[in-house]
Amino acid sequence: MAKKLHRPTTRRLIQLYSALLYNAHLKGFAEGQIYTGPLKSVCVPGLNCYSCPGAVAACPLGSLQNAVAASADRPAFYVVGILLLFGLLLGRVICGFLCPFGLIQELLHKIPTRKIPKSPLTRKLSRVKYGVLLVFAIGIPAWFALRRLPLPGFCKFICPAGTLEGALLLMLHPANEALRAMTGGLFWWKFSLLLLILTGCVFVFRAFCRFLCPLGALYGLMAKLALLGVKVDKSRCTDCGACVRACPMDIRAVGDSECVHCGKCIDVCAFRAISFRAGKLVLRGPELPGKGVRP
Fold it and tell me: Using CB atoms within 10 A of its CB, is residue 3 exposed (0-12), middle (13-18) or buried (19+)?
């Protein structure tokens, strides 16, 4: 019997539409050139490389590093304000719904093979991204800013989205032969790191997002304050733990700093205590039992 095909969930469609919207400059893919128009002064919420040929706006993480790198000359009010706005309105809903690199990780995880489940070890490793945020996204740019040397540490040394969406897509275009001739040790380090991360995502659900992504760490710091996301009705909750066990992320409680608000917990809650809300407005939950925000 043929395997039944499932329609994409609402969350998956939003992820796809976001990736297409972020990279709507199709001319860039055809010409192998980066869009540099006025929209590049605006940040999208999710991790999407500025140097991707299709990118129509800037990456918030890259913008943060550049702002920190220039902080010796001018305050980073604009970028910090934008990130605070994104975090307070959406929090890590951005990770679960609006991040193109998050979508890539989830699609890789669908490759059929034995998976590594979450454990106390993965929960401990999930703290590493806060160190990456502090050291590479803030510390290194700030240190070199004092010396008037702009250095976006995370973008330069780690960012797999930049390597995949920016460097590789540009280098593979026939018009950019000069870029291929300039590859050196730093490129091959980042390329090797990219392969390691993508391979890890096949076996571990959203490995980069959970362990290394400083943007997710930043939004996670605002998780308790975010307007949109999954919420628990304490009057119905029995603390059975089914939601935490079913969650593929390293959460300790629904809606905490590790939660990407995929909605899987809503499906497994026998007491109808969890809903997806925007403030007090219920978007999905016991009152609106619709399908479609599962991973």
Answer: exposed
Task: Enumerate the domain spans of the chain.
Answer: 10-220, 228-284
What residues of the chain score a pLDDT lower than 70? 1-6, 72-73, 75, 286-295
| H or E segment and range at residue 130 | helix 128-132
User: What is the per-residue pLDDT across 170-204, written as a single tens digit (0 to 9) for each?
Assistant: 999 999 988 888 889 999 999 999 999 999 999 99
Residues 116 and 206 sit within 8 Å (Cβ to Cβ): no
Distance CA 125, CA 268 (A): 26
Instruction: Show the tokens assigned to 110.
Output: 């669908």
Q: Identify the CATH assignment for 228-284 out of 3.40.50.1010, 3.10.520.10, 3.40.50.1000, 3.30.70.20.
A: 3.30.70.20
